[in-house]
Amino acid sequence: MLDIKNLCVSYGAIDAVRNISLHVDDGEIVSLIGANGAGKTTTLHTITGLIPAKSGSVMFNGHDLLNERNHKIVTYGMAHIPEGRHVFTRMTVQENLEMGAFSLKDDAKMSDDLDMVFGLFPRLKERRRQLAGTLSGGEQQMVAMGRALMSHPNTILMDEPSMGLSPKLVKEIFAIIRKLHDEGITVLLVEQNAKMALSIADRAYVLETGVITMEGDAKELLHDEKVRKAYLGA
Amino acid sequence: MSNQVIMFISQIFNGLKIGSVYSLVALGYTMVYGIIRLINFAHGDFIMVGAYVLMLTIPAIIACGMPAWLSVIPAILVCVAVGVIVEKAAYKPVREKGNNMTALITAIAMSLLLENGSQAIFGADYQTIPTIIQIPSIAIGDLKIDGATIVTVLLGIIIMIALQLFVSRTKQGKAMRAVSEDKEASILMGINVNSTITLTFAIGSGLAAVASLMYCISYPQVSPMMGAMLGLKAFVAAVLGGIGSIPGAMAGGLVIGVVESLTKAYIGTITGGVITSAFADAIVFGILIIVLLVKPSGLMGEPESEKV
């Protein structure tokens, strides 16, 4: 499980995340919702060591992530699908997926893993030789998700997977998230699309200007008056 | 074949010979730029370091009864060590604390340090390097191609193919491309970015050592400043090909070599003696200016907003 305690992160003099604590139990989908600039992406970046924390602790299955070298974290079973996909645009779809498996010692099972990803995203199979930069946003999101799966994660951090996608594609992506959940993968989901994020999650946290202001059962938050007003436009 | 055609073909071969040297050096510039967005101005001087190692080790190698060209191995080892030390000691701390401009100035400082350091050790004069290989020239009809030229061009082609295979097929090579495109995503894949940067410097410096062997086969002398002009021309080659692009650096080096060689051979005749072959360097740098004006991303580079 992932357990964050009293995490503080700052950019120079600006506190982006102030003393937040949250946890994600094995097999859960937990959503982190909040407005633009609330500190959601900062939180994910701190978990996987892309930016340093000021104080606090991040424990993941017995590993103290804040004191780990950041490229080691994926080997503990945590994948992070960053905001804006960050696929390698000048590499082919297949090369992107291969990079996802970079941390695995044994390359022998690579083709099985590729088949698994292509089974999940048949469109990627057709485009495996194409440069990822030439794909549509939805297809790039599929590459980013497939790439994360190639590392055999037990936990996936997803940052705005629905961003910039058509409603139909958003549904497809969320169906995949549900499927991964059914297979036992733990998900920490950051989303501005609060309605989708709360409908799929077991629990959720609301982040406002770097502070967690609400937390609890996702279905209850979905019907909470304040949440509805602030994030669901109702 | 008429004499003119023969002369033209041999000039092309001369151009390809020096062009292969430029290509190997340009690869070092372009790979390092690709991965840390730094023009490593000290890179040209790595050729000089390699050449001094050749000068010092060839007699010992010959004394052991081995062929002189084997001295490329100590040259590669020393150049790789110098490249990696320069990266770790000078560029890495600056990269973490400063910005691109500080790094660029540090690179110029490293270049001056290497040039003046070797001047302090070896003196400013040219010193000769023993003969490295002796290969008979090949005659095709009236056309005679120098053996050294053939060896140099072949060696260049083999190394370029090997490098291309490395970056396109191997796990480490792909990781290198991944890091040069997106460091954060690379970390998330589990790639150790710092060791990948070190590897890039090591490969670039090793190529510079091979380039010094190729250069010294035909021009067997060494001086502290020899890397400066060679490095600058290779830099022009890298920019012409599109800095950051590996095939671009290869093509750019060959083009610059051939242009330089043909300029030297024909510019006097074409302009009726107004412009002499002494202007060959000016023409090469003129290419740099034209590329920067017309197509700053180079022949094969990706258009990019950030330029040094």
What's the arrangement of secondary structure elements?
The complex is a heterodimer of chains A (about 230) and B (about 300).
Chain A: E1 2-11, E2 14-24, E3 29-33, H1 40-47, E4 55-60, E5 63-64, E6 78-81, H2 93-100, H3 110-120, H4 122-126, H5 137-149, E7 155-159, H6 167-182, E8 186-191, H7 194-200, E9 203-208, E10 211-217, H8 218-222, H9 225-231
Parallel strand pairs in A: 3-8, 3-9, 6-7, 7-8
Antiparallel strand pairs in A: 1-2, 1-4, 4-5, 9-10
Chain B: H1 3-36, H2 43-63, H3 72-97, H4 100-122, E1 127-128, E2 138-140, E3 143-145, H5 147-169, H6 171-181, H7 183-188, H8 193-218, E4 221-222, H9 226-241, H10 246-270, H11 280-294
Antiparallel strand pairs in B: 1-4, 2-3
Helix pairs in contact in B: 1-5, 1-8, 1-9, 1-10, 2-3, 2-4, 2-8, 2-9, 3-4, 3-8, 5-6, 5-8, 6-8, 9-10, 9-11, 10-11
Description:
Chain A: GO terms for molecular function: ATP binding; ATP hydrolysis activity; branched-chain amino acid transmembrane transporter activity. Chain A: This is Branched-chain amino acids ABC transporter ATP-binding protein. The complex is a heterodimer of chains A (234) and B (308). In chain A, the strands form two sheets. In chain A, strands 6-7-8-3-9-10 form a six-stranded mixed sheet, sandwiched between helices. A four-stranded antiparallel sheet of chain A has the order 2-1-4-5, covered by helices on one side. Chain A has helices at 40-47, 93-100, 110-120, 122-126, 137-149, 167-182, 194-200, 218-222, 225-231; strands at residues 2-11, 14-24, 29-33, 55-60, 63-64, 78-81, 155-159, 186-191, 203-208, 211-217. Chain A has one domain: Rossmann fold, CATH 3.40.50.300. By secondary structure, chain A is of the alpha/beta class. In chain A, helix 2 (93-100) packs parallel to helix 5 (137-149). In chain A, 47% of the residues are buried. Chain A is built from nine helices and ten strands. The mean pLDDT of chain A is 95. Chain B has 308 residues and is mostly helical. Chain B has one domain (3-294): ABC transporter involved in vitamin B12 uptake, BtuC (Orthogonal Bundle), CATH 1.10.3470. Chain B has eleven helices and four strands, in the order ααααβββααααβααα. Chain B has helices at 3-36, 43-63, 72-97, 100-122, 147-169, 171-181, 183-188, 193-218, 226-241, 246-270, 280-294, and strands spanning 127-128, 138-140, 143-145, 221-222. In chain B, strands 1-4 form a two-stranded antiparallel ribbon. Chain B is globular and about 60 Å long. The model of chain B has no long low-confidence stretch (mean pLDDT 92). The chains are: A alpha/beta (234), B mainly alpha (308).
